[in-house]
Each structure stands twice: as C-alpha cells, then as structure tokens.
Amino acid sequence: MSEARSSETLTQRAAGPSSSKDGKRVLVRVQGLKKYFPIKSGIVFQREVASVKAVDGVSFDIYEGETLGLVGESGCGKSTTGRTILQLYRATEGSVKFEGEELTTLKGESLRKMRRRMQMIFQDPYASLNPRMSVGRIVAEPLVVHNIGTKKEREERVAELLDLVGLNPYFVRRYPHEFSGGQRQRIGLARALALNPSFIVADEPISALDVSIQAQVVNLLQKLQEDLGLTYLFIAHDLSMVRHLCNRVAVMYLGKIVEIADSEELYTNPLHPYTQALLSAVPVPDPVVEEKRQRIILKGDVPSPVNPPKGCHFNTRCPVSIDVCYDEDPALVEALPGHWVACHRVS
Fold it and tell me: Are 303 and 75 spatial neighbours (Cβ–Cβ below 8 Å)?
C-alpha cells in the first residue's frame, strides 16, 4: 500500500484496479466463499466436534454503482456473508476481491487501509452507536482511527456529513439517546460515509425502523448513491422494498445462493421453487389479483446449518423435488441471459 494513499484528502476517493464483465466494471467479486463457525466440546481440552456452515460456497459479482439485494429467511447467512466480505469475519475458504485486490489474505495495516473504501451500516441503530460518545465523536471516529485531517478539519467534515444525511450540524454535542431510530440510522450512515468509501454493506438498515421512517432512509440511500457514486450490498427481508431499491437480487437459502437475476426479471419470472414461494408471500395491492393468486406454503422447518441435507439444501421442503435433488448439489448456472439459478429442475 503506497504512502500516497495515506495522504489523501478528506474528499478524495480511492481508486484501484478493475475487472469487467459484459462491459460493466466489477467492484466486488466473491468466489466459493465459506464461513464455518466451530462448535467445541470439553471443559479443559476443547476440541471441535462440528461446525455451523453459515455461508457454504457463495459466488457472485457486484458491479460498480449498482445495488445488489440479498434476501432470504432469517438464519440463512445473509448478514454473515456481508460481514465476511468486509473481513469482519475471516473467511474459512474462498475468495473476495475488491477492486481486483484479494481481501482474504490481507492482514494488519494493509487490511486496515483497505477498509477505508468499504464500510457497513448495521441493522440496529440502537446498539450500533456508543451511548457514551457524542454524535460528533461517533462520526469523527473513523477519521481519528485513520489519522486523517487536523482537529478543525475533522470538525468541518463532521458538520458536512451530518448535513449530507439530513441532520442539523449543531447536533454534534448531543448523545444517541436523544435521537429517534431514524435519526440514529442517519448518524450511522454519516459515520459510514466519513472515509469516502466506494462500497457499503447495508445490513437490514430499515428493519428496526417504523414504516413511516423506512421510506425516508431508503430515499436518502438512493440520493447518496446518485450523488457519491456508491455501490451497495443491500441485505433485507422486505421483498417489496428490495424490488424498489435494487438493480439485481440474489436469493439465499441455508448458506447458498439459489438464484440471481435483475430485479424485474426475478420478480416476474422466478425460476427456483424457493424464490417462487418467497414471492408468493408478498401482498399484491390489487384485490382482484390477490384473490386469484395462489400462495405456496412450504412444509417443515429450515434444516440446521450444522447438518444440512445431502444434495440440494432445499430438498426437504421443495414441492417439486426429484431423485437427483437428494444426491447432487445443483450448480449455479445461467438459465437465461443474466438469470442464474441452482436447481436440477431448471438446469
């Protein structure tokens, strides 16, 4: 990492090598990513007896300037995927390349400097802000950690960031408990933007907010993306919000990606049985269509990630499974142009 990068001004954005696909620049490339959490037994001499396969061989690209939605049931590995991409969790196996540079092998100062270009917005705005720190200190903390700017320059940058996310710059001396959930999430967003990142993982940033506030935060995310050229990995449960916000959508089930496609393509032509079941649960604002529409009710519970089923992970709940589903794990293949699916029925 060159010394030139460490002397960047507060408003510069780091650049790096790129790769491309179909004329689009790939900002983040994830290949065969796995994250297993060990389960240990014993009081004195602990030994690993099993592992939780939270992320089990995930591959996808995120293009510069787009928003990729990551959806699925609770516990399917969405948040773990986002945290592993940013190296908050170290990968068990696989590759994560950001602007062409491998992240899984970076350590120490090299990784710390790389993190300036990758940030995260956490799910719970009540738990992600230090209650003992004022808003000014919270937003300025990344600048202090990376030793950027003088004290006066940091104060000016904090005021600029608060104004950018729609908060009064005079709030710098207030504490998190004095703000609403939506305002706290804006503070978290200001903190994430402090280092001028090019990539942000938004881990369910609106799920803890009132419905009346959710639209405001989503509109702010869209405006910042347009103004600053940001790229998002947007993790969410709200499928209607994902359709509104995301360019492409990846569907995850039990640690694996089962389908990836452009947002409209996925919602109008879902190919994987799990995606079809998910979308059938989304209400349609038309009473005539809603009355005729059939819900797909999946039987049983999601299997344990400690001992996932052999073959396709969805075979225990799939209404159209066949013999091969119980023996072979389907590969993620391009069934239609830009539409990838992991299903023996489709491939």
Answer: no
As a whole number of angstroms, the distance between CA 104 and CA 110 comes to 11
Does an H or E element contain 186, and which?
helix 181-193
Q: What is the mean pLDDT of residues 267-280?
A: 92
For 121, 136, 172, 179, 217, the CA distances from 175, given in Å and listed in that order, are 19, 9, 8, 8, 20
Q: Measure the CA–CA gap between 64 and 229, rounded to whole angstroms.
A: 8
Contact 188, 150 (CB under 8 A): no
Among 270, 220, 230, 229, smallest CA distance to 249 is for 270
- Computed over every residue of the chain, the mean pLDDT equals 87
16 neighbors 47 (Cβ within 8 angstroms)? no
pTM: 0.87
Residue 108 phi, psi dihedral angles, 5° rounding? 55, -130
Alpha carbon distance 334, 337 (integer Å): 7
**Alpha-carbon span 188 to 130, nearest angstrom:** 11
